[in-house]
Amino acid sequence: MIPRQLKSRGVLALLSMAALLVLLSCNPADNQSTFEAASPEAQKLLDLLAIIGWAAVAVFVVVEGILIYAVIRYARRRNDNTMPAQTHGNTPLEIGWTIAPAIVLAVIAVPTVIYIFDLESEPPEDSLNVIVTGHQWWWEFEYPEENVITANELRLPVERPVRLLLRSDDVIHSFWIPKLQGKVDVIPNNENWLKFTPMETGEFYAQCAEFCGVAHSHMRFRVIVEEPDEFDAWVANYHELATRPAPADGSDEAQGAQLFASRGCLLCHAVNGPASAEARLALKEGFERGELRFPAPNLTNFGTRGTLAAGLLDNDAGGENLRAWLSDPDSVKEGNRMAELATVYIDPDSELSALEVSQLAAYLLSLK
Ligand code: CUA
Asked: How many Cα atoms occupy the beta-carbon half-sphere of 307 within 13 Å?
């Protein structure tokens, strides 16, 4: 038997450890912590949280204080068997506990409603427009004015308002960049939108926040906020890549480019930029007839990306992670459609050899 005192100390130690863990998870510097804001919109959410949080603390202290006071002050004394005084109705008390919750609700409601209207107001005319499409399990980003289609890395110029149009290609997802804005659901056949202005350069982690199938937790993306001239250079580089002919000199990259076409990668992935949007649509319709369900990430500027497999792995320059991904996608990201489609629709019998994998990787990494 564990002595009772020791037992309660153990419980106390466990509770303290749990509390410490909970507090550690509030570290603002963590990549997905909402306790650090890099946009005015995220800052407003943080302010709202502070108002509601402190109101809750005040309610907790008052209610628990009265409760503990009453428990101690009015506890039945030993050998005291008299009946306490019985009362019915107390007008000041009843008015008090009607007004107090009304005040609490007002403290929470007024700033919340103000912020809801603020969120619903249209962003400035010169906002950067991006069409976001959620797919099982990756993100597509289309910049209609810049004529750029990319995937899993959202590039934004710093201090310019952005307006995101949110669509889904299949099921309900949720678009979430913790340090930049709150979550918004991404729903098939219903467009939502979201605005914010990133005020700090850097890389922000982001994640699908609505369970959407087996690889939901791996449906990540990154937001890269950079100086406007860096963003412009990225757009220009995309267009240069979109028109650059495939290498044809017998190098690994050239072999890889041939494999990319001959082994069916091109059926789902575009590498020649937005000009192929129509082709992609035609493919997609064809896929729908033939039960192929989704187009796959546009790889035009794949070599410029810092991550692969929807933010899951670093896209290291040596290509180690890319080769692992190409040789056995399912072991890297269970549920992804690449292995499934490649075996069912393209060539069930032939797996890529190690040489082919490294040639394909060399080609993809050269797209920068
Ligand atoms: Cu998409 Cu979870």
From this structure: 22
